[in-house]
Design goal:
By secondary structure, the chain is mainly β. It has two domains: 244 residues, Thrombin, subunit H, CATH 2.40.10; 261 residues, Thrombin, subunit H, CATH 2.40.10. The chain has seven helices and 32 strands. A seven-stranded antiparallel β-sheet has the order 23-22-19-20-21-25-24, with helices on one face. A hairpin with a 4-residue loop joins strand 2 and strand 3. It is elongated, with a radius of gyration of 27 Å. Pfam families: Trypsin (PF00089). InterPro entries: Peptidase_S1_PA, Peptidase_S1_PA_chymotrypsin, Peptidase_S1A, Ser/Thr_Proteases_Immune/Dev, Trypsin_dom. Belongs to the peptidase S1 family. CLIP subfamily. One of its GO terms (molecular function) is serine-type endopeptidase activity. Keywords: Disulfide bond, Glycoprotein, Signal.
Length: 571
């Protein structure tokens, strides 16, 4: 890391101690931040997530960032020989808890790399999508000197806001003004620079800048990153924790023989939030989805605008025997686990007129009994147990969730039978999508798509009370039809305008899901947001449909699956 020699030392924070809020080794927590300065003065215990990456010749090559107890995030280009021949895992190892490369301490730890996961669309020519994860052969033992950084928080500050309000911090052992690798970890404060300014100042960056995927930062001549700093992170403090926003991608060489890298030019960073679902899927599976499934809700990302989900391989039809005379599907659920389908509690409670026979997977339309039709692509899953939320009351509306425990595990290798994701956090979305089958439609009942926006629960409850309906709305959410627009927001999603009148005036079958989709630039991930609990078919009363809130129910679902699953394994 090149730091120009001038007398001004910028002291950012001194003698401050942060206490972790989630245990001794929460992400983004430092035990002491004393005398941290931009001019690379030595500091103890400041960046416990920053690691040194070495090659098989035991030479330092790049930096990286600990994001979990098995994974280090770095740049993909550092995992190649001269950008051509990919390195193999055994040719790399990482050193953690080190500040001076020539003087490891008793708390310094070493980790062998067992797997290199490069972002699938990394371009070696342009160095776009320049991310890789190094999986270590053993779990990292966290301490006050070694710990993980936090990934960018849901709803965290935008690049524009960061550019206005604070500088980020970049650390590394890269080349110094003396054209040698720094033995001591050095630091630089860098400001985010908008694309037009960056492209004007550094002409070579013009074809490389891609909104959303990368960004520019600079130091106005004070310091810069250089060869050897690649793969390191750019950190910001949000609240009382440190978060990684960027990964060092490339800087600008200089003709000035005094400096190997130009401190007056910007540096390109990969924008981690764009790729965050990819990082979470591999390194933080329980952060990616509540059950930690290695694959759930997956589809192909088809460009800068998120598309509707075309196929819904997670749909489950609950088939009943009614009055001991005929079989029919009257409720629906979602496959969320190899052994479990989530549905409404009222769909599986015992009733004298009906008996739940089995669950049908792999079929979207509703027609005659699949047993009679002999649909070879559908799976008829037998049931071993029905689990209803303990606080559900049939005469009430709250806590309307249940699980159907399947007798045998579902094989996810078939493309038309896959699980949907359960969200680990409540994520802001511009709209939800709904799947529904309407009672009055002829068989086979087709799958119908519509778009919805959430409205304030208090307003929804008030409308129902005005119509004489007063009941518990615990763990429920209210949604309103919205009209899908061709207008595209700055973040690449469509807008959806709330409609005052209902789109459909028929009654959908119970348990129809609402969901949302996120992406990582390569794959999409569909998350279950809710399931239709009740509503009205009267288009004149202006009452909203009400859904069981699957985020609020998530902890209960996870706990019941852990308690009742017949197989103990890492999914």
């Amino acid at each position: 890391m090149v730091a120009l020699k001038f007398s001004l030392l910028l002291l950012i924070l001194a003698f401050v101690k942060f206490k972790p809020t989630q245990g001794a080794h929460s992400c983004g927590i430092v035990d002491r931040l004393a005398g941290y300065v931009i001019n690379a003065e030595e500091t103890e215990n400041v960046w416990p997530w920053h690691v040194a990456i070495y090659n098989s010749s035991n030479a330092y090559i790049a930096g990286g960032t600990i994001v979990s107890d098995r994974f280090v995030l770095t740049a993909a280009h550092v995992t190649f020989h001269n950008q051509n021949l990919p390195l193999r895992p055994y040719e790399l190892h990482v050193v953690m808890g080190i500040k001076n490369l020539s003087s490891p301490q008793n708390y310094t730890r070493y980790g062998n790399v067992s797997r290199i996961i490069r972002y699938p669309e990394y371009n070696r020519d342009t160095m776009l999508n320049d991310l890789a994860l190094l999986q270590l052969s053993e779990k990292i033992e966290f301490s006050m000197h070694i710990g993980p950084i936090c990934l960018w928080p849901v709803g965290g500050p935008s690049l524009e806001k960061l550019a206005e309000e604070q500088r980020g911090t970049v650390v590394g052992w890269g080349y110094t003004e003396n054209s040698t690798i720094s033995q001591v970890l050095r630091e630089a404060g860098m400001s985010i620079i908008d694309f037009p300014t960056c492209a004007e100042n550094t002409k070579s960056f013009q074809p490389l800048l891609t909104k959303g995927r990368n960004y520019c930062a600079g130091t106005r001549g004070e310091a810069t990153v250089c060869r050897g700093d690649s793969g390191g992170g750019m950190y910001f403090m949000v609240g009382f924790k440190w978060y990684i926003r960027g990964i060092v991608n490339q800087g600008t060489p200089t003709q000035d023989t005094r400096y190997p890298c130009d401190p007056h030019k910007e540096v390109i960073f990969m924008d981690v939030p764009f790729y965050q679902k990819w990082v979470e899927r591999h390194a933080l599976s329980k952060q990616h989805n509540r059950l930690g499934l290695s694959e759930c809700g997956m589809g192909k990302y088809e460009g800068d605008v998120e598309r509707d989900v075309v196929k819904s391989p997670w749909i489950a039809h609950l088939f009943y025997r009614f009055w001991d005379r005929f079989n029919v599907s009257d409720c629906h659920g979602l496959l969320v686990h190899p052994e479990f389908v989530v549905t409404l509690a009222r769909c599986i409670i015992d009733q004298p007129q009906r008996k739940l026979l089995y669950v049908i997977l792999g079929e979207e339309t509703i027609g005659p009994d699949p047993y009679e039709e002999n649909l070879d692509y559908a799976l008829y899953a037998e049931i071993t147990e029905k689990i209803v939320h303990e606080q559900f009351k049939e005469e009430d509306f709250g806590y309307d969730v249940g699980l159907v425990h399947l007798k045998t595990r579902v094989d996810f290798s078939k493309e038309h039978i896959k699980p949907i994701c359960l969200p680990s956090a409540r994520e802001p979305v511009p709209y939800y999508e709904q799947l529904a089958w309407y009672r009055r439609e002829d068989h086979p009942k087709p799958l119908t798509f519509s778009h919805l926006q959430e409205i304030r629960l208090e307003s929804c409850i008030a409308r129902y009370k005005r119509n004489g309906i007063s009941a518990s709305f615990d763990q429920l959410m209210c949604l309103q039809d919205c009209l899908f627009s061709s207008d595209v927001l700055a973040n690449g999603t469509y807008t959806c305008h709330v409609m005052l009148e209902k789109v459909y005036c028929d009654i959908p079958l119970s348990g129809g899901p609402v969901y949302y989709t996120k992406h990582d630039g390569h794959d999409t991930y569909t998350y279950l947001a809710g399931m239709r609990a009740f509503g009205t078919a009267n288009c004149t009363d202006r009452l909203n449909d009400v859904y069981s809130d699957m985020f609020e129910m998530g902890a209960w679902i996870e706990r019941k699956i852990e308690e009742n699953s017949l197989f103990i394994e890492q999914l």
